[in-house]
Amino acid sequence: MKRTHPIITSLALLTMGFLYLPLLGVAVFSVNSARRGLVWKEFTFDWYIRLFSNERILEAAWNTLLLAVISTILATILGTVLAIGMDRFPWSKRTRNFLDIVLHIPVVIPDIILAAALVVAFGLLRVVSSLFDPGLLNMIIGHITFQIAFVALVVRSRLVAIGRDVEEAARDLFAGNWYLLRRVILPLLMPGIVAGAMLAFTLSLDDFVISFFTAGPESQTLPLYIFAAVRRGVTPQIHALSTLIMIITVIIAISTERLTRKDLFGREKK
Question: With contact defined as beta carbons under 8 Å apart, do 210 and 223 qualify?
Fold first, then answer.
């Protein structure tokens, strides 16, 4: 068994420390009774308790949850349909390559460019209807635009793993299109669909750029609230709020990773 070079090990540890020590520091200061500075006084959960009595934070949390749930549901449906259509429809090679490029654009494009494009698009739509004024509707549409791509990519990877043998066997047994979709494809795709949905939910929960460009005065989310609060100074309540968001994100990420490791029969891959 080959041993890892000490330099590589040191670089790996430094990288891990650079990534996770600041997060650990935020979690530690969220239970510190000191209001300012880096001095440790005593352990307390008061800052977490005060979060649930802060009306602005509760309103931002509700907006964040509502935005994430609605956009995730719609993006999951659209992304799953898109993945099935791209993988199972007999497209020409040129069309398939074009669709692959279009699907990957929201993933690789910088958020600031996508946000600027959404501002222009909603500006044109406001000429037609006032429904597209900055607010929750614009935020939902904006989040869906980048969530669909992530869901479709996860579901497509599941489709590739499934292959076509099971579908061909079902058709040999006279299964119709609707029966095949409902009783064969969707059950096999379910781990991928759920994983894609959880990934989309996490992205929506943490998004700042798209939300910042599309939000209205009554649709502030937690990332926007934290950004505005930090400009006035970091408080223990911000540490507590950031820690809660981080814990929720980690739980969803771990759950998504475990779902994507399941094989076609629902067993975890070794």
Answer: no
Which residues contact residue 53 at a Cβ distance below 8 angstroms, ignoring those fewer than 6 apart? none
- Angstrom distance (rounded) from CA 218 to CA 214: 12
Low-confidence winner among 132-136, 175-179, 237-241 (lowest mean pLDDT) = 175-179
DSSP for residue 132 = G
What is the number of other CB atoms lying within 10 angstroms of the CB of residue 152? 28
For residue 174, is it left (φ>0), alpha (ψ between -120 and 50) or beta? left
Number of independent structural domains in the chain: 1
d(CA 212, CA 207): 9
Residue 61 lies in a domain: yes
What pLDDT digit, counting tens, does each position of 38-89 carry? 677 788 888 888 888 888 888 888 999 999 999 999 999 999 999 988 887 8
Judge contact between 180 and 167, C-beta under 8 A. yes
Question: Which domain range does residue 77 map to?
Answer: 45-260
Query: Considering only CA atoms, which of 158, 123, 135, 169 is closest in space to residue 259?
Result: 158
Q: Is residue 72, in this structure, part of any structural domain at all? A: yes
Residue 141 backbone phi and psi in degrees, to 5: -65, -45
CB 61 within 8 A of CB 226: no
Q: Residue 151 falls within a domain, yes or no?
A: yes
Cα 54 to Cα 235, 239, 241, distances in angstroms: 14, 14, 11
Residue 54: exposure state from Cβ atoms within 10 A (0-12, 13-18, ≥19) = middle
